[in-house]
Fold:
Amino acid sequence: MIRNLFIFIKLDFITLKQNWKLYLVTPFLAFAVSCFFKDELAAIYFCLYMTMYTSTQLFSISEKNKLDTLYLTLSLSRQDVVIGRYLFILCTQIIASIALTILASILQTAGITAFGDNTFITQLIYGLFIISIFSAIQIPLYFKRGVNKSKLIIIILYMLPVVLFLLSSSQGLAIINRIIDSITNNSTLLIVPIIGEFILLGISCAVSCRLYRSKNI
Amino acid sequence: MNHTANTPNILEVNHLSKRLGTFALDDVSFALPQGFIMGFIGENGAGKTTTIKLMLNMLAKDKGEIKIFGQEHLQYEREIKERIGVVMDSPYYVDAWTMLDIEHAVSSFYSKWDHSRYMNLLEHFSLEPKKQLKALSRGMKMKLMVAVALTHDPDLLILDEPTSGLDAVARNELMEILRIFMTDERKGVLFSTHITSDLEKVADYITLIHKGRILETQTKDELLEKYLVVKGGLNLLTTEQRQMLIGYREHSVGFDGLIDCASLRHLPTSIVTEPSNFDEIMIRFNMGGEIDE
Amino acid sequence: MNIIISNSAGAPIYEQIKEQIKNAIFSGELTDGELLPSIRKLAKDLQISVITTMRAYNDLEQEGFIVNVQGKGCYVQPKNPELLREQKLRDVEQHLLNAISDSKLAKISDKELMDMLYLLLNEEDDIEEGE
Structure:
């Protein structure tokens, strides 16, 4: 059964075959972005955004080509499909993280960026945590209603932080900034977002299983 | 030498019910013994696809039991699906995939997948492995689905309207493939279609579904022997006799209809009888009594 | 052995198969102990249902013409002259009964019918002598 999960991840990769060219270009784009801003943060958010785009693309291609039917003709249960998909998303995050780490080393060795290792790792882990929040909400929606029908809700989801940001007073923002600084400067606390991400995705996965189980295909 | 007496059922559906909006499958039951082909016929919207989707867990049943290879279909879902091949009316693969991509995507799921068999089948169907799915015609897509379905040596083939939109030549080719598949007596085929001529030659059993209910499920020969087309002059029949007919149609110079052989003795002996065929049976059950001026 | 079935012949297909196999046995085209095509192969070749060929073979086994060896197939039973004669007697009786019933319908008298029979028999003898 575990074996089938890995085969499913492979299937997800093959599903995105038509986008491979895009993914090859991504590291170079990330590199270019970092050079431009002289800052790895931009590259981090660029790459992490790509992982989110990837999962949306995956669901989108899957929906357009009726892959839900394919999954149910293979020796997979609905639970396998959901767990396999989450594992695939984790894989994309791992790949992105490895690529970013290599990129950061190159940038720092080449003297293009000046940050120390510490800050990079912190930025990466919190970045992963933030996109996990979005994914945790997005993925169950995709499983239940598909990409097309979820577009409106997703837009609202992404707009929410922007709106909140715009609506907050400068005092409120200052407090939030202080909190963020104190958290991110404490490296022992790094374990929290890591565990937090797994808990979030775990709960999201359980919710997706329940939603997908009753979906009519 | 009665082969069918003790053969196990490769597929068993018992009292299956499902409500989908205004449509309902109601108490559907039938069984396919190992070693035979069952034609699943009915008009559009009768419930064939719904039944098949329920078997494959694409829809959740309200009531009833489904057993494949003698195993409960949900509890042993993974083991069962390793041994079945499914062909639908349109492919469920990414249209940008080539036939080789399809193999990469699905082959690892099957322990009995054989690369050389896949290549042989593609060659037999004149399909180029490097061509993309979207570049194939309707007939070629069907053959591709069959090739994928057959490559992992399944024990049960489930086909849901695979021949709609295909010409007689392509349909005949599929029938020939099924005949060859069935020379192994441990296999089985469930073939749903509304093109009844596909089944006339190749089916062993027929299950007729109409508006979500099973009307008949038995051997093809028995079904064709059970119903006869009857014709006669106006006023030949009493009202009671008319009600015994299925799909009674009256026109200006006579009437026709379908009758169950058991009821034939209640009709006058001067009535004209003719053998029926699947189309006739399906059409008559779909008709109410009709009067054509 | 050739088996040719006709969808419009009138007789059910399994009957046609039985007849043709029996005739092949009578004529010696199928020899004692010869292996018949398998039920499934026959169904595939004739493009008919396996149940039809099963029924034909079933009946032939019940009537003593063939025997099914588990795992190997169906073989022609050694010709039992008694059995053959009995079968043919039954066939002749049926044909005669049909002739009698038709004559009655056409109001042909018994004497006319007998005369016809003798005439035909003599013709047959003439043909045989001439060979």
Observations:
- Residues 248 and 289 of chain B are 5 Å apart (CA to CA).
- DSSP finds ten helices and 15 strands in chain B.
- Chain B has two domains: 9-223, 225-291.
